[in-house]
Design brief:
With about 675 residues, the protein is an alpha/beta fold. The protein has helices at about 20-35, 90-105, 110-115, 150-155, 160-175, 190-200, 215-220, 230-245, 275-295, 310-315, 385-395, 415-425, 430-440, 450-460, 480-490, 500-505, 510-535, 545-580, 580-605, 625-640, 650-655, 655-660, 675-685, and strands spanning about 1-5, 10-15, 40-45, 50-55, 70-75, 80-85, 125, 130, 140-145, 180, 200-205, 250-255, 300-305, 325-330, 360-365, 400-405. It is about 45% helix and about 10% strand.
Length: about 675
């Protein structure tokens, strides 16, 4: 038998639907209208006739017996067939409704961020086969919407409104996620946490904000943020946070760090040994745990073993109850080792060992912001097979109770977020098969060559260190470049720039500049080589696919290419400066600025339609700041020989020989702009 969905299909939803089910119904209703061209009819109450029924399961249906499970049952009623989608809890019913939307209405999980609307049709036939959902590989799985400056700056209102957050949470639910940290240190009056709860998601907290409580120094300005001295003030904040959230689905984060996401002992020298630090953290975690258990039955709790806390735990200085999920973190570049801290890179394995009991999970970055070499605006710089290997390895080590993924601004990272979707649901993934499927979904009028372009992307990224994860993201071209300009203009070129030792090692400043210049210059041919076939694919694509390829691959290549070319020109400017050739240094600094401006132009081109102003708040990679730094540099260089009249270089290099000795100064004193002078000098120098 077949079952048909069409414009006349009637839906039944539960009486007095809960908030998560109500939100899910609004999604299904919109999807039905997009696909079939009409707003569907809905009814309430078991007596009402309907074709598709969303309801809670009854025991005889044998709906799977785990949290958030659902089932599809085709039921005969008076000669008619009805599709019943049933679940034992709210989130299970939400997943069942979205499975119906995805599987039968054809709505892609990433449709909003990929500008990929479902196909229109007059009716849909589906076989009447019952279906049981499978249990996800990871119990708690979700996104940390972190460093979300694009989401913040996209619209005028701050903090971001429902308009911004709703598609974030919808996509997470469509990807099978059930947990979220909704933003980073946003004002407590914002909609983000309330809306996440409304839509059925478990809310969890940043490791620097245990229990989601107000930061101590915000609540008590002028007081010392010491639990040793002011325990009752900390506990008041924790009590308030528990009281506010006790009736919601919360994965409570128990932790104790200092204010501003740093170790508490940085401001309290009394804790001068690992034993003292570990004892304090253990004591605070146990106190928080007891406070929650006093208010919440069967609470779900976690401890983030991040940075120095992981080191203390591994050394045996921290004691954590077994039923608290211990969360291990990658280094920001996808490797399950300790993160680099300035120039220190110990790479201590960050996974539970065979003797580590209890529950374990991981916090994983597909995007990162670290002021060094991370990818914030651009795609993950390593192959997706690397992500697959790291996450599957973590699951095998027992870290499968929890997976929190740093999702950043969502839109630039849909490829890797989609890969993680398959991993947290199924526990494993064939990275090559996923790529083929992803490309087929994103570019239905494209060719198999597009998959090879995605593979090539990771082959072209700069390998700047000895480890497989030492691959450069977009921040590599900007933070180090701005550091170099600052060091140079501050007159400190005779001293090495210690903040770059993580990349260059301990070498002198001119060699540091040349190290970055050479790395970037050597990468330019590869990025040009990748850009050419992308551009050759575009004419053969339908317009929506063409725009999608520009937004989700070409943009990323152009950010890398412009960054490499800009850094190369910056390095050449410094070399010319050291040789005393200030006009040539000025030209190269101008060219560096123009190259970096290409990155800005690429971002601007991706701000079409609903994405207008999406990259307006690029405050982290901050390409605009890099452009301004190059402009400052070239203005400073022009002071070296063209000042005070800013006519001397024009006279020396550009003015016709026949004019140099006979011109009248009172008629030839309109100095060229920096751009005009740089263009003319570039022609003269042939660069």
């Amino acid at each position: 038998m077949a079952f048909s969905i069409d414009r006349k299909t009637i839906y039944r939803i539960p009486n007095n639907p809960t908030s998560p089910v109500r939100h899910a119904w609004e999604m299904v209703k919109r999807d039905h209208e997009q696909v079939l061209g009409t707003v569907p009819t809905s009814v309430l109450g078991e007596e009402e006739h309907a074709d598709v029924v969303f309801r809670y399961a009854v025991p005889e249906e044998r709906c799977p017996d785990w949290p958030e499970a659902f089932c599809f049952r085709f039921i005969m009623d008076g000669g008619r067939t009805e599709l019943h989608i049933a679940a034992k809890d709210d989130l299970g019913l939400v997943y069942g409704m979205l499975e119906y939307s995805g599987k039968h209405l054809g709505v892609d999980p990433l449709w909003f961020w990929a500008d990929l609307p479902p196909k229109r049709c007059s009716h849909i036939e589906l076989p009447t086969n019952d279906y049981d959902s499978f249990e996800p590989a990871v119990r708690f799985r979700g996104w940390f919407v972190n460093d979300e400056v694009c989401l913040i700056g996209w619209k005028e209102d701050y903090p971001p409104t429902r308009e911004v957050w709703q598609p974030v949470f919808e996509t997470l639910l469509r990807c099978g996620g059930n947990m979220v940290i909704p933003g980073t240190d946003l004002p407590k009056h914002g909609i983000h946490a309330d809306l996440a709860a409304e839509m059925g998601l478990w809310v969890t907290h940043h490791h620097a904000e245990p229990l989601g409580a107000e930061m101590f120094l915000r609540a008590y300005p002028g007081k010392k943020a010491s639990y040793q001295e002011n325990p009752e003030l900390f506990e008041t904040l924790w009590e308030e946070a528990i009281e506010k959230q006790k009736d919601r689905n919360i994965v409570w984060v128990l932790s104790f760090r200092g204010q501003g996401d740093e170790p508490f002992w940085a401001k309290d020298p009394a804790f001068d040994t690992p034993q003292k630090r570990g004892e304090m953290i253990s004591r605070v975690v146990r106190k928080q745990y007891e406070m929650i258990r006093g208010k919440v039955p069967d609470p779900k709790c976690s401890v983030a073993l991040y940075g120095e806390i992981a080191e203390l735990y591994k050394a045996g200085h921290i004691s954590i109850p077994d039923d608290i999920i211990k969360i291990w973190a990658d280094n920001g570049y996808g490797k399950m080792v300790s993160r680099r801290n300035n120039n220190e890179n110990l790479r201590i394995p960050s996974l539970p060992g065979p003797k580590d009991k209890g529950k374990h999970g991981i916090y994983y970055h597909v995007t990162f912001h670290d002021l060094q070499a991370s990818n914030h605006l651009a795609l993950f710089p390593s192959p997706t097979s690397f992500i697959r290997d790291e996450l599957e390895g973590a699951f095998q080590a027992g870290a499968k109770d929890y997976l929190l993924v740093n999702s950043g601004n969502i839109r630039p990272h849909i490829y890797t977020l989609d890969l993680v979707r398959e991993l947290w649901l199924g526990g494993e993934v064939d990275a090559e098969e996923h790529l083929r499927t992803f490309v087929n979904r994103m570019f239905p009028t494209g060719s198999v060559e597009i998959a090879e372009l995605y593979r090539d992307y990771a082959r072209k990224t700069i390998l700047y260190g000895p480890n497989e994860d030492d691959r450069a993201g977009d921040e590599f071209y900007h933070h180090p470049a701005r550091r170099i300009v600052g060091h140079w203009l501050q007159g400190r070129s005779d001293q090495p720039l210690g903040a770059l030792y993580w990349a260059t090692g301990e070498i002198n400043f001119p060699d540091q500049v040349e190290w970055f210049r050479r790395k970037c210059a050597d990468a330019v041919p590869g990025w040009l080589e990748l850009l050419e076939p992308i551009e050759s694919q575009l004419p053969g694509l339908a317009e929506p696919d063409r725009l999608r390829l520009k937004d989700h691959l070409q943009l990323h290549v152009e950010m890398h290419l412009s960054g490499c070319e800009g850094f190369d020109k910056l390095g050449k400017s410094y070399s010319a400066y050291r040789m005393g050739n200030f006009p040539l240094a000025f030209v190269y600094a101008s060219q560096a600025m123009w190259k970096y401006e290409k990155g800005l132009a690429a971002l601007k081109q991706a701000e079409h339609g609903k994405w207008s102003h999406f990259f307006r708040a690029d405050w982290l990679t901050n390409i605009s700041s890099t452009v301004q730094n190059m402009d400052t540099l070239r203005r400073w260089l022009r002071m070296h020989g063209d000042s005070p009249d800013f006519f001397l270089w024009y006279k020396e290099f550009i003015m016709p020989e026949t004019e140099k000795y006979i011109y009248l100064e009172n008629t030839h004193r309109n100095p060229l702009s920096d751009d005009e002078l740089a263009q003319k000098l570039a022609d003269w120098f042939g660069v």
